[in-house]
Design goal:
eight-stranded antiparallel β-sheet; 14 helices; about 20% strand; Asparaginase_II; L-asparaginase II
Length: about 350
């Protein structure tokens, strides 16, 4: 059974406990910290978007189509669907001579409520550009367009169906995941992600290894190492694109820049790279609670970076308030995280 990582207090009494597992690994594969079962395969979901974007840069597609820092950061994003996110995703497609119809991520309303309410008041409808994965999918389409150019094919036709596991784009993405994690993902349990691309169940130890490699470039193919550095630089330059207003990933990377890359995934997953320490982090909250995953990631980052940063502490010791604004409780790291 995995240890409790985060406790939820109401008043001074523990109301809920969130168990989970945590792996911290260096680029050689040496384990720095292991809590719980770090060998059980889990679906990392959106936490691996940086890894999925490696072929976009390594192939030369990002350079060929002149993608900016903002556009590259959006390729690594689970954004809130705010206007700047939508405009940036549309801008990538415009560079390719395409529109939102090229995206196969599906239509999703913005997750940021004021934006959603404003759209509804204006009578607007959501499009695939509002999908939190539209930047990642724009990157996939960009890669497909370069492949089409090299093959003498029509770009829109070549890109069609890029979400399928056997499409050339997804084969490149899967190969990048395999190279970074050291796991043959084609042999791993497979599902379909919320945005329709394949998702593979991988051990936390392998995911942490991948992010240690992405943070240092060590043990990655040369092209992927350069791509990882370029993507981390882009995210550090434009962290708002990765999440949005009041989002954990944006706020933390605004505070720490290139010292910390972190990315949430659905169902309580977090992955991170700490380049200056040469470490990668992967954690999973068993019950899938996102706020517990954020609290655990904040506590781990505080410990590893040896900082009492207010942004991180605001998540690791999140104050809970009711609808009147009255303080009613808090989150805190459990004793299981002390070993970090």
């Amino acid at each position: 059974m995995n240890p409790v990582l985060i406790e939820v207090l109401r008043g001074g009494t523990v109301e809920s406990r969130h168990a989970g597992a945590l792996a911290i690994v260096d680029a050689s594969g040496a384990v720095h910290t292991a809590l719980g079962d770090i060998e059980r395969p889990i679906f990392p979901r959106s936490a691996v978007k940086l890894l999925q974007a490696l072929p976009l840069v390594a192939s030369g597609a990002a350079g060929a189509f002149g993608l900016t820092d903002e556009e590259l950061a959006l390729a690594c994003a689970s954004h809130s669907g705010e206007p700047i996110h939508v405009e940036t995703a549309a801008g990538v497609l415009a560079k390719l001579g395409l529109d939102a119809g090229a995206l196969e991520c599906g239509t999703q309303w913005p997750s940021r409520e004021p934006v959603l309410r404003a759209m509804a008041a204006r009578g607007e409808v959501a499009t695939p550009l509002h999908n939190n994965c539209s930047g990642k999918h724009g990157g996939f389409v960009c890669l497909a367009c370069l492949m089409a150019r090299n093959a003498g094919a029509e770009p829109a036709e070549f890109a069609r169906g890029y979400v399928a596991a056997d499409h050339p784009v997804m084969r490149e993405v899967s190969a990048a995941l395999s190279a970074a994690t050291g796991v043959d993902v084609e042999q791993a349990p497979r599902g379909i992600d919320g945005c329709s691309i394949p998702t593979f169940a991988l051990p936390l130890r392998a995911l942490a290894l991948a992010f240690a490699r992405a943070g240092t470039g060590q043990c990655l193919p040369a092209g992927h190492a350069r791509a990882a550095r370029r993507l981390r630089e882009a995210v550090a330059a434009a962290p708002f694109m990765v999440g949005g207003t009041d989002r954990f990933d944006t706020r933390v990377m605004q505070a720490f820049g290139e010292r910390l890359f972190c990315k949430i995934g659905a169902e309580g997953v977090y992955c991170a790279a700490l380049p200056e320490l040469g470490l990668g982090v992967a954690l999973k909250i068993d019950d899938g609670a996102a706020r517990a995953a954020e609290a655990a990631m904040a506590a781990v980052a505080q410990a590893l970076l040896k900082t009492e940063d207010d942004v991180l502490r605001g998540y690791s010791h999140l104050v809970l308030r009711n609808w009147r604004g009255t303080e009613v409780g808090a989150l805190r790291p459990a004793a299981g995280l002390d070993s970090v």
